[in-house]
Amino acid sequence: MSKQQVKLNNWPFKDGEQAQLTWISYPFLQDKKIMIYAYFRANGRTEKLLVDWGTLPALAIQHNYMNGDIRKSIPSAGTEEVEMTIYPNAVRYFEKEWSIYGTNDKDMSRSFIVSYKNKKYILPLIEVVRSILAPNRFLLDRLFETNSFPQYFIEQHEANKIHLDFSSLYHRKYTKVNFLYQLVWLLSNQDLRRVFENAAYTFINTGILRFDWLFTQPITIKAIVKPSSTGGTILRITNVKNKRIPYTVRTQKLYKLRNQERQKNTRCIVKVEMAISKAN
Question: Contact, 10 vs 49, CB < 8 A?
Answer without folding.
Answer: yes
